[in-house]
Amino acid sequence: MTIGVPKEIKNNESRVGMTPGGVFELTKKGHTVNVQSKAGEGSGFFDKNYEKVGAVILNTLEDIYTASEMIVKVKEPIEREYPLIREGQIVFTYFHFASSEPLTKAMIASKSICIAYETVEDEEGTLPLLTPMSEVAGRMAIQQGAKYLEKPVKGRGVLLGGVPGVAPGKVLVLGAGVVGIQAAKMAAGLGAHVTILDINMKRLRYVNDVMPPHVVTEFSNEFNIRKHIKTHDLIIGGVLLKGAKAPNLITRDMLKDMRPGTVIVDVAVDQGGCVETTKPTTHEDPIYIIDDIVHYSVANMPGAVPYTSTMALTNVTLPYVLKLANLGWEKATESDDALRKGVNIIRGEVVYDEIIETFGWN
């Protein structure tokens, strides 16, 4: 099979869909790998590194899409890429269709085979291709939140860890999944007081067992959310519904109950956000302020640490890329239940129920 690795063109996205190590594994099996020139530079991988392991370097985005049977990338295609994707072409990437009807309609129109990293689901119900980026984003959420709590960027002027004689900052984490646990771990490490909410008591028991005493758990409901947003300095949105739009746990009217300069980091932005006032931002212009509340909702947070993120992502995607290349998408998905759940659109037909439900296409 001929595999194409394009340069990501989303704002400030420096990750790449395949490392030279991945190219080596594919070429060793007799596959051809086309890599767009400079695709890996942002992650520290140069054209010469790819050429040494047998990659074919092509100059343009158009060349990659034209010459490749399968596209392996990181972020969802953006508008410039829509017309480049052709019928029957496999596109293996993060799609997050539930957050974008225009993207969904464009991929339907392309009649391509869309396999989404974020809905590949193993027999234990975990999402192996989403987990590493959730780990990165959860940790980064605290890093970014701590920065935007500073007064020069309109935050409350709170140091999360506090100092002797001054209480630490308070962090509210919505969701005890991968993002939430990683965020709680980082915040706790800084010395902040952390409250983590979830509706899954099994997850809350786990958090209670593994976290230090200054991380407390509570059941998630509107009453508890409204109570805590009044006193917490940093709010992390880490809610995930597999393949579907995230629920709005914080509504516009709740902002008035928060103290001016409170920071919201909505990691769920890729799935539409769990805060009603969330809108996607970029690393170039990451925040906006509504009712004196600082919102940080960068849709590709791990793109800011591309070396770490690329290595973490490709560690888990490569086995699936190899299977797709070796067997073709039909045999690969027939033989692998987890990969089959990643198939969202087949030649113009949406086959993932949560997408259909999100847009009311029943």
TrEMBL record:
<feature type="binding site">
    <location>
        <begin position="267"/>
        <end position="270"/>
    </location>
    <ligand>
        <name>NAD(+)</name>
    </ligand>
</feature>
<feature type="binding site">
    <location>
        <position position="15"/>
    </location>
    <ligand>
        <name>substrate</name>
    </ligand>
</feature>
<dbReference type="Pfam" id="PF01262">
    <property type="entry name" value="AlaDh_PNT_C"/>
</dbReference>
<dbReference type="GO" id="GO:0000166">
    <property type="term" value="F:nucleotide binding"/>
</dbReference>
<feature type="domain" description="Alanine dehydrogenase/pyridine nucleotide transhydrogenase N-terminal">
    <location>
        <begin position="4"/>
        <end position="137"/>
    </location>
</feature>
<dbReference type="GO" id="GO:0042853">
    <property type="term" value="P:L-alanine catabolic process"/>
</dbReference>
<comment type="similarity">
    <text>Belongs to the AlaDH/PNT family.</text>
</comment>
<dbReference type="GO" id="GO:0000286">
    <property type="term" value="F:alanine dehydrogenase activity"/>
</dbReference>
<dbReference type="InterPro" id="IPR008141">
    <property type="entry name" value="Ala_DH"/>
</dbReference>
<keyword id="KW-0560">Oxidoreductase</keyword>
<keyword id="KW-0547">Nucleotide-binding</keyword>
<dbReference type="InterPro" id="IPR008143">
    <property type="entry name" value="Ala_DH/PNT_CS2"/>
</dbReference>
<dbReference type="InterPro" id="IPR036291">
    <property type="entry name" value="NAD(P)-bd_dom_sf"/>
</dbReference>
<feature type="binding site">
    <location>
        <position position="134"/>
    </location>
    <ligand>
        <name>NAD(+)</name>
    </ligand>
</feature>
<feature type="binding site">
    <location>
        <begin position="239"/>
        <end position="240"/>
    </location>
    <ligand>
        <name>NAD(+)</name>
    </ligand>
</feature>
<feature type="domain" description="Alanine dehydrogenase/pyridine nucleotide transhydrogenase NAD(H)-binding">
    <location>
        <begin position="149"/>
        <end position="297"/>
    </location>
</feature>
<feature type="binding site">
    <location>
        <position position="203"/>
    </location>
    <ligand>
        <name>NAD(+)</name>
    </ligand>
</feature>
<dbReference type="InterPro" id="IPR007698">
    <property type="entry name" value="AlaDH/PNT_NAD(H)-bd"/>
</dbReference>
<dbReference type="GO" id="GO:0005886">
    <property type="term" value="C:plasma membrane"/>
</dbReference>
<feature type="binding site">
    <location>
        <position position="220"/>
    </location>
    <ligand>
        <name>NAD(+)</name>
    </ligand>
</feature>
<protein>
    <recommendedName>
        <fullName>Alanine dehydrogenase</fullName>
        <ecNumber>1.4.1.1</ecNumber>
    </recommendedName>
</protein>
<feature type="binding site">
    <location>
        <position position="75"/>
    </location>
    <ligand>
        <name>substrate</name>
    </ligand>
</feature>
<feature type="binding site">
    <location>
        <begin position="298"/>
        <end position="301"/>
    </location>
    <ligand>
        <name>NAD(+)</name>
    </ligand>
</feature>
<dbReference type="Pfam" id="PF05222">
    <property type="entry name" value="AlaDh_PNT_N"/>
</dbReference>
<feature type="active site" description="Proton donor/acceptor">
    <location>
        <position position="270"/>
    </location>
</feature>
<dbReference type="InterPro" id="IPR007886">
    <property type="entry name" value="AlaDH/PNT_N"/>
</dbReference>
<feature type="active site" description="Proton donor/acceptor">
    <location>
        <position position="96"/>
    </location>
</feature>
<feature type="binding site">
    <location>
        <position position="198"/>
    </location>
    <ligand>
        <name>NAD(+)</name>
    </ligand>
</feature>
<dbReference type="InterPro" id="IPR008142">
    <property type="entry name" value="AlaDH/PNT_CS1"/>
</dbReference>
<keyword id="KW-0520">NAD</keyword>
